Amino acid sequence: MKYRQLKRATLFLEVAFFYLFYNDLPLIIINMKYSWVVCILCCSDGKLYTGATYNIKKRVNAHNAGEASKFTRARLPVKLLATSRFMRKEDAYRLEYGIKKLPRNKKLQALKEE
Q1: Among 38, 33, 24, which residue's Cα sits nearest to residue 82?
Q2: Cis, peptide link before residue 26, omega less than 30° from 0
Q3: Measured distance CA(46)–CA(58) in Å, rounded
Q4: What confidence tens digit (pLDDT) does each residue in 12-62 have?
Q5: Do residues 82 and 96 touch, judged by C-beta distance below 8 A?
Q6: Domains and CATH numbers, the chain
Q7: What is the per-residue pLDDT across 65-77, written as a single tens digit (0 to 9) for each?
């Protein structure tokens, strides 16, 4: 199944799992314990924003609507540069903190190496 076919898919939360449905048929079950990612966004003025989330699309849309962060609200629009692999929430926050401590040139260098 191709990605564009999943645009109409719906997600709902039950206990600690996401169930992804397409035309009322279950496709996948994702353990929410390992569903967090760290993302790096590029603002309109070229500054980088790093954050952790479990729903990338919703988070980027919230940033572009000016609802997610004061930092990005003044620098709209933002675009997604990179995301990490799926991980636990604690690990995502730890990685986010480590990335935020890096200078800009080290962040860009790490993105180029990927």
Answers
A1: 38
A2: no
A3: 22
A4: 333 344 445 555 555 555 555 668 899 999 999 999 999 999 888 999 999
A5: no
A6: 3-32 (no CATH), 36-113 (3.40.1440.10)
A7: 999 899 999 999 9
Query: Could you identify the residue written with the tokens 């190496």?
Result: 113
> What's the average model confidence in pLDDT over 2-18?
39
Those residues whose C-beta lies under 8 Å from the C-beta of residue 42, and which sit 6 or more positions away, are 48, 49, 78, 79, 81
What does pTM read for this prediction? 0.69
Give the pair of three-digit tokens for residue 38. Answer: 């760290």
Residue 9 to residues 26, 29, 32, 54, 100, Cα–Cα distance (Å)? 10, 13, 18, 17, 34
